[in-house]
Specification:
CATH superfamily: Aldolase class I
CATH class: Alpha Beta
Strand order of the largest sheet: 1-2-3-4-5-6-7-8
Structural class: alpha/beta
CATH architecture: Alpha-Beta Barrel
Number of helices: 8
Largest sheet: 8 strands, parallel, barrel
Shape: globular
CATH topology: TIM Barrel
Strand content: 15-25%
Order of helices and strands: EHEHEHEEHEHEHEEEHH
Helix content: 25-40%
Low-confidence stretches: none
Mean pLDDT: 93
Number of domains: 1
Length: 209
């Protein structure tokens, strides 16, 4: 089970995530987000072994490549309308493609995009809305077939994470707004409660891919 904590902006929160066993640290480069960081701010945060993931929404491939190099990213996570050939210089196994199930008229249509994007990514992430706190209909996702590991996001916190895992069995979790005391500010107490609710350690990123 991969654990990614997204929207990181403070070193003491990053340090606690490492101590708790998180695998991936997410930096959001979308300027309108309350969790936005610059490349300079991201590179100043010592992730101490956690994989560094950059979240990109509207940037060009050239800008994403520049930020990725400056921020020392290990993965890029693509939200929005990037084409299937968008790589920013990354190998496909280091690309996380985000899909939004609520935007699809049917699960068959969602499955078609999952299949179509298989050559263009190494991980999928199914989200309910970027930093919105909304959840997905988890049981409906159980019948989807994924060519690569997939992560679940959207409104996940200590109170519902076990239900989510039991409903659709993702390979990883992406946590964000439900671990915050206010927009952009992670709560140590909520992070600790999340890992206590999981009741088990995380897996290495390399083993999952």
């Amino acid at each position: 089970m991969l654990i990614k904590i997204c929207g990181m902006i403070e070193q003491h929160i990053v340090d606690r995530a490492v101590a708790l066993g998180a695998d991936m640290c997410g930096f959001i480069f979308h300027p309108s987000s309350p969790r936005h960081v610059t490349a300079a701010q991201a590179v100043a945060l010592d992730t101490r072994g956690m994989a560094r993931v950059g979240v990109f929404v509207e940037q060009s491939e050239e800008e994403a490549a520049r930020i990725a190099q400056e921020a020392r990213l290990d993965f890029i996570q693509l939200h929005g309308g990037q084409s299937a050939v968008f790589t920013a210089g990354f190998a496909t196994e280091r690309i996380i493609r985000v899909l939004w199930p609520k935007r699809y008229a049917s699960l068959a249509a969602l499955q078609a995009d999952i299949d179509a994007l298989a050559p263009a990514c190494g991980l999928y992430l199914l989200d309910a809305g970027m930093g919105s706190g909304m959840t997905l209909d988890w049981p409906s996702l159980a019948g989807l077939r994924f060519p690569h590991p997939w992560m679940l996001s959207g409104g996940l916190g200590p109170d519902n994470v076990r239900q989510a895992l039991a409903s659709c069995s993702p390979d990883g979790l992406d946590l964000n707004s439900r671990l915050e005391s206010s927009p952009g500010r992670k709560s140590l107490e909520r992070m600790e409660a999340l890992f206590a609710a999981l009741g088990k350690g995380s897996a290495s990123v390399e083993d999952a891919l």
